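For concreteness, we quote verbatim a single protein encoded this way:
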Amino acid sequence: MLKLLWLACLPAAYVNTVFTQTVAYASTEFHISEQGQGFAAAIVRWGVIIAIPIASYADKVGRRRVIIGLAWLAPLIISLGALSPSFAFLVATQTIGRPLGIALTVFVLVFATEEMGTNTRAWALSILAVGSGVGAGSAVGAIPLAGISESSWRLVYLVGIAWLAVAYVLTRSLPETERFLALHEEQIHHTDVETHIHRDRLWLQIAVAVLTNVFVATASIFQSRYLKDVRGYSAFEISMFITITTIPATFGLVAGGRLADKIGRKAVAIATVPTGTLLFASSFAVHGLAMWSAAIFGGVLLGVSYPAMAVFRSELFPTAHRNMASILIMVASLIGGSVGLIFAGFLLDNGMSYGRVMLTFALGPVIVAALVAAKYPETAHLELEDINPEDAHLHSS
């Protein structure tokens, strides 16, 4: 099961990454400013609202059908970016395609949370994050194509069509989750069964997601531009920098998953979220070996923090609404983060340095660590039915 979900992460991550990695090159061809890039990235993120009805559908008909559909649609739609006659057309295709990739990622994480054992949920998400890293890395690895000519960034979008092979494998092999099947049977025989989303948990996670994504979105969008314009890196050098500084984070992901399952989600998150963020932010303020070191060690710590933070999004909600809750958190995260992107673009266009912008936005994840310490429950070593008592009733029969 985990192997199939790992495969599904590949096209999802590629779709989620390709625009952020190519927007600087497309902007050069279409003469778009940094503020314009930030606004475009914000629009693409606002498109995630289309995932809300998809999540509702997934909670009603099952995870399998929706995951397979998205695995086919997302690569096809983003590949249309290669045909862009204008920057507006490129933004439009990604506003539809990228949210489908994001939704695919969310539903895969929900699937894994429901299928994995009590002491392996965070670890499973860390393994899937490695898959996402491979998928995103394939987009980064394709960046040298963008350096061939002013218009060759379009080739990066065409590469995504190859991920349709994954959709074919999922169509043939992916089953439905046992927890959804149990819920479906219960609803058939007991029509009065009702569950709800815990609003206090939802709002808390929305706040945490927004504060985190204000930093993450800005760093991901403007890193290539920073390396290109401030450090004078070529397309190949940018690809090498991102690849080399990201690879060590893979080991952090796996270690973080094990730690989150063994000693608890809260301890891992509190220790690594603020330190990793501040280190990574500082990579925008220094150069040479210090820049490389800050990006590497910051990335490793953020990698360690990811499984602990990600697993909360699925664990704290009942089976009947797990996809919807996860998508609502993601929607809020991206829309909130888009405000940060616009603001960051404005600050950069008006002369503020990349280092000052990123260190300012790093305050968000620092606040997140405080919220996790004060408000989050510990979910390690617990069954989902223990975390969500209404599910215990659903599965008791």
Notes: The chain has one domain: 2-176+197-395. DSSP finds 18 helices and no strands in the chain. Residues 11 and 163 are 5 Å apart (CA to CA). The domain at 2-176+197-395 is CATH 1.20.1250.20 (Growth Hormone; Chain: A;).
